[in-house]
Design a protein that fits this description.
Mean pLDDT of chain B: 87
Largest interface: A-B, 47 and 47 residues
Shape of chain B: elongated
Number of helices of chain B: 10
Largest sheet of chain B: 4 strands, antiparallel
Order of helices and strands of chain A: HEEHEHHHHHEEHHHHHHHHHH
Distance between the termini of chain A: 42 Å
Structural class of chain A: mainly alpha
Oligomer: heterodimer
Number of strands of chain B: 4
Strand content of chain B: 5-15%
Strand order of the largest sheet of chain B: 1-2-3-4
Order of helices and strands of chain B: HEEEEHHHHHHHHH
Chain lengths: 421, 224
């Protein structure tokens, strides 16, 4: 079995509880686009609960009646999870190091690890303590890092904005407006920067430097396609080293806009705001639609129309789920249309694989395991049908005799067989 | 890796890490979607001391569809088929919720053994036995636990289904939940022992029912 990160990674129960509480109870992953069910207040990944609501109309946790209209994006939780995703690995490393230290020294030391290690997650909320946390992390797990990186990251030179500032930025970007520049700590408005703002007239997202031509053109010209604001946390971690270095070197000019936008440029290439879904799709009543109309629905979303009607409906249904689910995320975490289509394809591929492998292997295994029983039942059935005057057939047996041997049904014949042996 | 596999992985490791619940989940073959769970019989019940194994099949749309579970170990219980091991439990059917896990479902099975529900039976004969005479039912369930689930008498661990049938000779009268006196009475009339047991079991010749069922009725059945 492969290794999947879960709360049991942590050595102490308090950290395990923390990690577990930030996980969706349906998929067991850290919340991805969490939504809260108004009414009962339970929280799930948007994708998970939307899949559930297709089958049942109640809360998975408490069974209170609910529906899609009761879902509210839980942006605060999304921030918290985003921050925890960043901090998790470091906290884990620290907790393990402390665990080994504690194991080496005496039991009294073990007591201290608990308050120590439970500190970081809460600390990651404020930039200043995040920075001190950073210092700790450096000491613990980046021992082999070059000195320079350590200095740059802790001493508050203009550049460290990238990493310690990131946490605070996550929170601000979420907290409503997509106007990163409105924050005092953020980059000041620089007419030449690549900053993206909402057009005050039409609400479209436009690079700051082309805002004037955009308005002048009557909000038709979207301007140079803006790049995405920031990386998703996971992507960010992958690119961690790269972005850190690029921020180090890019910061040379002192223009705070420079390194930032460079870091962004390394992320997904989101060439235009229209590539990110902004509007929810409504459920369709497929049963009343003609084939042509369903195909049209797919075409509207640029989805393939391969397969039969069943496949179209399944495809469209799942696309609705992931499309609407991505809208429950903060702007910066949303998938583009292309990514959604990719995800859909991946999902279909997985589905296509399964029935063949899982289904058949189960059946084969089942037949093998119950082969003897099947044969015996068949024989028994034949014996009974051959002798019309059922000399020894009890009602139970004769009742079952015509049936093909089903795995569950024939309680009575099997049992009586057992008795007789 | 797809979400279902990730979740199953987590659930298996969760069970491995949990030493207090005494519940285990193991792979049967190569597939992570066909598993074997086991748990100890709840104490204070006829199932105490037994070790019960459950076949677990994880459907394609898990966790949005319930897992398929059935007992591998033979269990004498109104809500478990005594022949196939099929289980009648709401959370395995329409009351399933995706927040339930393999572990929580196995715990539910364990508690199902504590509290039989004869009004919604899976095995009608066992349920009849239960409602007629709880005492006699418990004796039989205890005997089954000893024979098939390896309680007490050291019959070895869980002997499931067909394997159990070929093991050391068992008292088939006790397995059927009948009394030797009754079986002996009709055997003396010249009927085959197995047949007598079969008929008496079907007629639920137990407890207070013994006085309700006339001997002629039984002989009639035996002559059929």
């Amino acid at each position: 079995m492969m290794d999947v990160p879960d709360p049991s990674d942590f050595p102490t129960p308090d950290l395990r509880a923390l990690d577990a509480s930030l996980r969706c109870t349906i998929c067991g992953e850290l919340y991805d686009g969490p939504v809260m069910l108004t009414g009962c207040g339970h929280c799930f990944c948007s994708v998970c609960v939307r899949q559930h609501i297709q089958r049942e109309s109640d809360c998975p946790s408490c069974r209170m009646k609910t529906s899609e209209v009761a879902f509210r994006p839980n942006s605060v939780l999304e921030e918290v999870v985003g921050a925890w995703k960043e901090a998790r690995k470091h906290v884990l490393d620290m907790a393990r190091v402390e665990q080994t230290l504690a194991a080496r020294s005496h039991a009294s030391v073990a007591l201290q690890t608990i308050p120590e290690s439970s500190n970081p997650p809460s600390a990651s909320v404020t930039p200043s303590s995040a920075r001190s946390l950073k210092r700790k992390r450096r000491n613990v797990d980046y021992v082999s890092d070059s000195e320079s990186s350590e200095v740059v990251l802790v001493d508050g030179s203009p550049t460290p904005k990238k990493r310690p500032g990131k946490v605070s930025k996550v929170s601000r970007a979420n907290r409503g407006s997509e106007q990163p520049s409105s924050d005092p700590e953020e980059i000041p408005l620089d007419p030449n920067s690549n900053e993206i703002i909402d057009c005050p007239m039409c609400g479209k997202r436009v690079p700051l430097r082309s805002i004037n031509p955009h308005i002048d053109s009557g909000c038709k010209d979207v301007g140079r396609p803006p790049s995405k604001i920031s990386l998703s946390p996971t992507k960010a971690r992958n690119n961690n080293a790269k972005t850190q270095w690029s921020s180090l070197f890019g910061a040379g000019g002192g223009s705070s806009g420079g390194p930032d936008s460079k870091g962004k440029g390394k992320g997904k290439d989101r060439s235009s705001p229209s590539e990110i879904p902004t509007e929810r799709l409504a459920n369709a009543s497929y049963d009343v639609l003609k084939d042509k109309q369903i195909k049209q629905l797919l075409a509207e979303q640029n989805l393939p129309t391969t397969g039969d009607r069943k496949a179209w409906i399944r495809r469209h249904k799942h696309y609705l789920i992931i499309h609407n689910a991505t809208l429950d995320k903060a702007m910066k975490n949303r998938s583009t249309f292309a990514e959604l289509r990719q995800e859909l394809k991946h999902w279909e591929d997985e589905k296509a694989k399964k029935p063949a492998s899982a289904g058949v292997s189960d059946v084969v295994e089942y037949t093998k395991a119950n082969d003897g029983e099947f044969k015996r039942l068949v024989q028994e059935a034949r014996r009974n049908t051959k002798k019309p005057p059922p000399k020894d057939a009890s009602p139970g047996i004769s009742g079952q005799s015509e049936k093909t041997p089903s795995p569950v049904a024939p309680d009575i014949p099997v049992k009586s067989e057992d008795m007789e042996t | 890796m797809d979400a279902r596999l990730r979740r199953v992985n987590k659930e298996i490791s969760d069970c491995k890490n949990d030493k207090t619940s005494n519940i285990t989940i193991d792979l049967i073959g190569d597939s992570p979607f066909h598993l074997k769970g086991s748990f100890p019989g709840p104490s204070g019940t006829p199932y105490e001391g037994g070790h019960f194994e459950v076949d677990i099949a994880i459907p394609e749309s898990y966790p949005f569809q319930p897992v398929k579970m059935k007992f591998i170990t033979k269990v004498y219980h109104p809500n478990v088929s005594s022949a196939s091991g099929a289980i009648c439990l709401d959370i395995l059917k329409d009351a399933w919720s995706p927040v339930l896990t393999l572990k929580s479902t196995l715990i539910s099975l364990q508690s199902l053994l504590c509290s039989p529900e004869p009004n919604d039976p899976q095995d009608a004969e066992v349920a009849k036995h239960y409602t007629t005479s709880k005492k006699s039912f418990e004796d039989t369930a205890r005997y089954w636990t000893q024979v098939y689930a390896g309680a007490g008498k050291g019959k070895g661990s869980a002997a499931g289904g067909a394997v159990g049938a070929t093991e050391a000779p068992k008292n088939e009268v006790a397995i059927a939940g009948l009394e030797e006196v009754h079986v002996g009475k009709f055997e003396k009339l010249g009927f085959e022992r197995g047949k007598v047991i079969d008929v008496l079991r079907r007629l639920n010749y137990r407890g207070s029912n013994v006085t309700n069922i006339h001997d002629d009725r039984i002989v009639q059945e035996l002559l059929k």
